[in-house]
Amino acid sequence: MISDQRPSSQDTSRDTQTITLFLCGDVMTGRGIGQVLPYPGNPRIHEPYMTSAKDYVQLAEEVHGPIPKPVDFAYIWGDALEELRCTNPDVRIINLETAVTASRKFWAGKGIHYRMQPRNIPCIAAAKIDCCVLANNHVLDWGYAGLTETLTTLNCANLKVAGAGRNLSEAEAPAIIEVAGKGRVMVFGFGDESSGIPSLWSARSDRPGVNLLPDLSGDTVRRIAKRISGLKRKGDCVVASIHWGGNWGYEVLSAQREFAHRLIDQAHVDVVHGHSSHHPKGVEVYRGKPILFGCGDFLNDYEGISGYEEFRGDLTLMYFVTMDLATGKLVSLIMTPMQIRRFRLSYAHLHDVHWLQQVMDRESRSPGARIEWVNNCRLALSARY
What is the number of H-type helices and E-type strands within the chain? Predict the structure, then answer.
């Protein structure tokens, strides 16, 4: 049964020396989800097995029951809104894995295309999101024009972006979020071809695109370090948000782990925010800095699709990272388990919380680190930082 205990509010009286970030994995508000929002748009899709986005709605309803249509803009966030209210993070960052466009020109040869009608952008604002990372393998699903419209729509909604732009300079530029009385959070977005980003999507001086990493080498880290050093001030919190790796499996490649370590050692990154995996992967604390290797899908329309059940892709995590601005080190990492059901986030069942705790504890490698179950519905990283 679902716990009837609501989480108690966490202490929000943090001093000016700490800053709390909300981070999550892939937020996909297109395709089936887009069809239940107030402005569904053209359901036509170009996939090998589906021709209409409405088919994804039908699949979800066959498994979990009817979805009220149209839903309001806040519907998709469900219980996550209550958790955000209780935790009251200073900055909210998502990986928006959906083009926000009415474009009809899809990227030919690509099997899956996500898009959300621009008039549905209030569904992102409903969770008071500060920054949308766009360096992923779906932001150009509807071509360069679709990316340009995405950037324009987000800008008009006062949503900052990182990892994509109208040219290389924009794609490389960080989103800078000022937190009154505390300081700045700088979010750099990076994409890696291992996540399925086509090489043609790389931004150029005269072409829109994503900030695509050429590789995970030391030379790449040095270039990133030079860029960050020219912008970072004392007390800034720097987030490197990276779309990398495959969809399934818990393995973290040695090249990814070494790249994350180098970002911390050489580029003075404070938080590594990884995504692309369809389920949460392990976390690490390296020299007092948190590395989230894969945050998992946060919102999607995969209900009713079989395969990979052992990874429980319906379960996801809200990550609340609190950093000490004076030392640049981790103070706490709290994770709240959620479940995607009828295109909406709900608090996970207690037995699912327990399952996630065991998986995360097994996969997290920090020396002396443990992922513990606290307050009935949250997980916490316990370690000597």
Answer: 9, 20
For residue 349, how many other CB atoms are within 10 A of its CB? Answer: 16
DSSP classification of residue 153: H
Of 179, 285, 267, 281, the C-alpha closest to 231 is 267
Closest CA to 295 of 22, 20, 23, 21: 23
CA-to-CA dists, residue 158 to 67, 168, 175, angstroms: 30, 21, 12
% of the chain beyond a pLDDT of 70: 95
Evaluate the omega torsion of the peptide bond into residue 70 and state whether it is cis, within 30 degrees of 0. Answer: yes
pTM value is 0.94
pLDDT tens-place string over residues 42-99? 999 999 989 999 999 999 999 999 999 999 999 999 999 999 999 999 999 999 999 9
User: Which 8-state DSSP code applies to residue 193?
Assistant: G
CATH of 18-382, one of 3.60.21.10, 3.40.50.150, 3.90.1150.10, 2.40.30.170: 3.60.21.10
| Rounded Cα gap, residues 141 and 48, in angstroms | 15
Amino acid at 244: W
Kind plus residue range of the DSSP H or E element containing 263:
helix 254-266
The helix or strand, by DSSP H or E, that contains position 228, with its residue range, turns out to be: helix 218-229
